[in-house]
Amino acid sequence: MVSRSGVREDGADCRSVPTAEPIPCADSGSTDGMVRLEGGDFLMGSVSPEVFEADGEGPVRHVTLRPFYVDVHTVSVADFRRFVAQAGYTTDAERFGWSFVFRNHLPRKYADRLARTRAVVGLEWWIAVPSARWDRPEGERSDVKDRLYHPVTHVSWNDAIAYCRWAGKRLATEAEWEYAARGGLEQATYPWGNELAPAGKHRCNIWQGRFPHQDTAEDGYAGTCPVTAFENNGYGLYNCSGNTWEWTADWMSTDHHAQQHRDTRDNPTGPHGGTHKTQKGGSFLCHRSYCNRYRVAARIGNTPDSSAANAGFRCVRDI
Question: Do 180 and 174 contact (CB within 8 A), yes or no?
Answer without folding.
Answer: no
